[in-house]
Amino acid sequence: MESCFFTTISSSSSSSSPFSIFSIQGSSSNVGRKFSKSCMHPQLLSCQLPKPFLQLNGRPKYRLNQRRSAYLSSATYKETISAEKQGWDLGRFFKTLYFFNGPPSPAKIVEFIIEKLSGSSPEESEKKMGTSDYVLVVGATGGVGRRVVSNFRKKGLPVKALVRNEEKARKMLGPDIELIVGDITKESTLVAQYFKGVKKVINAASVIIGPKEGDTPDRAKYSQGVKFFEPEIKGDSPEMVEYIGMKNLINAVRESVGLRTGKLLFGFEDQLSKELDWGALDDVVMGGVSESTFQIDRTGGEGGKPTGLFKGIVSTANNGGFTSIRTKNFSSPVDLSAYDGFELRLKGDGCRYKLIVRTSTDWDTVGYTASFDTIGGQWQSIRLPFSSLRPVFRARTVSDALPFNPSNVVSFQLMFSKFEYDGKLNPTFVEGPFELPLSTIKAYIKDPITPRFVHVSSAGVTRPDRPGIDLSKQPPAVRLNKELDFVLTFKLKGEDLIRESGIPYTIVRPCALTEEPAGADLVFDQGDNITGKISREEIALICIAALESPYACDKTFEVKSVVPFSEPFTVDPENPPPEKDYNIYFQTLKDGITGKESLEQSAIAV
């Protein structure tokens, strides 16, 4: 069969190949590049199929640009193609070999022959990664952050903490806490590999504000809130922490947590483009005569935009029956563990195709495969969940194969084939010319999307520059924004970076934070107008709940308790308040309300 192209050719076919593609590794040589120019290079719009290879009644036929109905009207067409034995194109076989593997290695050839004679099955070299899906807590030694960590650990959920001081973190959070030592204000400390396995982030990092006259070792004055002391910035500036630090953090975790609109893997979308090195991989590798190519058509996509084009002629002559295009192995594996599946944007022809994804750099290996049906003459988006990918080797399902590992994708293949899996045939297969325009391959996040990045900001961030506001009635941070190095201004700039990042987010703006217990009734609001207080414990619980709620996704809101500042809030340990369902609050939130609306309106008025 066709899946991995090592099938031994039947000895009854005198014109068939005496051997199949060898498992040869290494980068492509200059020879390979030379061979690829004629029909494999994706940039050649004028690419023509080579010399006539499909003989119909003794005459060469191409007709690539005609409708299928024009050349499938005769019932004898299929019979004529499949009945004839045709000469095997050894040159095209070696072009394929060179394109993907470079010049053949005698040692690999001997190794291949020995393996076939011994009957041993190929070894699947990939190893399933042992990493879990972590929540990363940034600012984990702060008042909110350490409570987030504590709550996750009580629930037995995997959590990592990004901290600057390892010794301090272990004393505060415990000796067995998983730490990433880094500083968001120093981009060089945020190494991408440290964030492997991080799927969600709670950012509680904040500029440090403390009393001018100093504080106790346990920061007792700080814990009371800024209402009770004259504040000043301690350590790094608001610009470094709230803005530059946010930019560095987003860049560090973006690939790990994923984007709302998905990750472009191939194709052309808006101002983005991503091209891959595709090559034809047809049934010539098993003695057949089918032939295909892949091109970039700069005006053939939707609205005259660029698109890829997989086209060719498929024949069952010489026991063949498939064409395909396959990418060279990527220079480094692509981690798609933040996503849930592949989405293809294409113009169908009514036939069934396959997407084959490999997670091993070995040539002759399991391909994780999904078939999909197309609608003739229509552009359509086809979603293939990772869970639908079937482990296939030489057109047979491998029942004991490892599950698909989205963190280690190394190549793609598109196929049009007579064969399905396990002896079944493609019910839509017809011989002759075909065309499949393919504008994009993306990884997508399934609906409903939940937040991947929850950020603890502050109420009041839009107020310092709001016209007509009575500053005497505002919290100290609003009144003293300038004296505090524009702390709220840079917090707002940091929020904007999140909103513009493409990462699904929630921005929580607490009013003045206290050391009181959670449990008081709450007020959620939007527009940045309320004042009051709320406990750090409550904010930690809200952040954790937001990660699982689609209602909290892409929302910005303020929150306070109903208890006045002048009244302390306590909880009877013998009769604690019931746990809250924060979804009740999240469901009241609306999109697009940030409090910046009044600033924008005033700017227009001016």
UniProtKB/TrEMBL annotation:
<dbReference type="InterPro" id="IPR008979">
    <property type="entry name" value="Galactose-bd-like_sf"/>
</dbReference>
<feature type="domain" description="NAD(P)-binding">
    <location>
        <begin position="451"/>
        <end position="550"/>
    </location>
</feature>
<dbReference type="InterPro" id="IPR036291">
    <property type="entry name" value="NAD(P)-bd_dom_sf"/>
</dbReference>
<protein>
    <recommendedName>
        <fullName>NADH:ubiquinone oxidoreductase intermediate-associated protein 30 domain-containing protein</fullName>
    </recommendedName>
</protein>
<dbReference type="InterPro" id="IPR013857">
    <property type="entry name" value="NADH-UbQ_OxRdtase-assoc_prot30"/>
</dbReference>
<dbReference type="Pfam" id="PF13460">
    <property type="entry name" value="NAD_binding_10"/>
</dbReference>
<dbReference type="Pfam" id="PF08547">
    <property type="entry name" value="CIA30"/>
</dbReference>
<feature type="domain" description="NADH:ubiquinone oxidoreductase intermediate-associated protein 30">
    <location>
        <begin position="273"/>
        <end position="436"/>
    </location>
</feature>
<dbReference type="InterPro" id="IPR016040">
    <property type="entry name" value="NAD(P)-bd_dom"/>
</dbReference>
<feature type="domain" description="NAD(P)-binding">
    <location>
        <begin position="139"/>
        <end position="254"/>
    </location>
</feature>
